[in-house]
Design a protein that fits this description.
The chain has a six-stranded antiparallel β-sheet. Strands 8-7-6-3-9 form a five-stranded antiparallel β-sheet, with no helix packed on it. It is globular and about 55 Å long. The protein is mainly beta and 294 residues long. It folds into three domains: 79 residues, SH3 Domains (SH3 type barrels); 59 residues, SH3 type barrels, CATH 2.30.30; 123 residues, Alpha-Beta Complex (endopeptidase fold (from Nostoc punctiforme)), CATH 3.90.1720.10. Helix content is 12%, strand content 36%. Strand 15 and strand 16 form a beta hairpin. The protein has four helices and 25 strands.
Length: 294
């Protein structure tokens, strides 16, 4: 049909994004409708089936462009954040509403019905979630920000969208140590290797593709693993990626350990070689000099 990646371009034989007219063949083209993710997080799958594997997740406040709403409760479309295409539960989406003003900077935070941590939480919002906030209040010494439409979050767990990005994405990744491994996961409840890279770099202000093969093609410049390894270099294998926490330690969401770990690089190289072979590349991101000594 086309050389376009179906993970990143919304097309099927029966339906396609209007912007792809002339590039793909489809029975029908639609412009789609933008919706806001209103669930704390929700699955994005390749098929509209609860039993289908998890490709990735959509997060609170993100925009999802819908090309089809199905009667079985699934919507087919494309996530604005990283262009990933798939099916998501329709109930996880709502009207665009107020434009987000803040993002969650804690690994996760609670949405309370009002400004009081003693009240039962309504939801758990993940790192990177986007919120529209208005006003603040203090209860027993804790400052809260009020959410448009109802609810409140702890003020120190959020930051304005235009706040300076995190200065060290490796330190952000290190905050996920011990997080369970979850194929397709994209939150601190559970995540996979490429999500760890994507979320950490996003907090540092760098938009990043979702999957390892996409990241290997898009990020940084190739360097040698044997010479001049640096903190922040990304080590890629077929289907896996890790972050050099130091020249001799690898930080990654490991399917072997089933959690995010920091381990000696040589141990990881030897173990992964038995199933995936040697690294396919090491990539160095621009602007890393300021984190080398951290």
């Amino acid at each position: 049909m086309t050389g376009l990646d179906p993970r990143l371009h919304a097309f099927r034989p029966d339906l396609a994004d209007e912007s792809l007219r002339g590039r793909v063949e489809a029975a029908r083209y639609v412009a789609g409708m933008s919706r806001r993710v209103t669930a704390p997080f929700a699955p994005l799958k390749r098929a509209p089936d609860e039993a289908a594997g998890l490709d990735t997740e959509i997060l609170y406040g993100e925009i999802f462009h819908v090309f089809e709403d199905r009667e079985d409760g699934w919507s087919w479309g494309q996530l604005e954040t990283d262009s990933y295409v798939g099916y998501v539960p329709s109930a996880a989406l709502g009207a665009l509403g107020a434009e987000p003003t803040h993002r969650v900077i804690a690994l996760r935070t609670f949405l309370y019905p009002d400004a009081d941590l003693k009240h039962p939480a309504l939801a758990v919002l993940p790192l990177g979630g986007r919120l529209a906030l208005a006003g603040e209040s203090e209860t027993r010494g804790t400052l809260y920000r009020h959410v448009e439409g109802g609810g409140a979050v702890v003020a120190c767990h959020v930051a304005p969208l235009d706040a300076p990005p995190a200065p060290d994405f490796v330190a952000v990744a290190g905050r996920f140590l011990g997080t369970p491994y979850l194929w397709g996961g994209r939150t601190s409840i559970g995540l996979d290797c490429s999500a760890l890279v994507q979320l950490s770099l996003r907090e540092a202000g760098m938009a990043t593709p979702r999957d390892t093969d996409m990241q290997e093609r898009a990020l940084g410049e190739p360097v040698s693993l044997s010479n001049d390894r640096r903190r922040g270099d990304l080590v890629f294998w077929k289907g896996h990626v890790g972050i050099l926490e130091s020249p001799d330690r690898l930080l990654h969401a490991s399917g072997h350990h089933m959690e995010v770990v920091s381990e000696p690089l040589e141990d990881a190289l030897a173990r992964i070689a038995r199933s995936a072979g040697p690294p396919t590349s090491v990539r160095r991101l621009p602007g890393l000099d300021n984190i080398r000594a951290r």
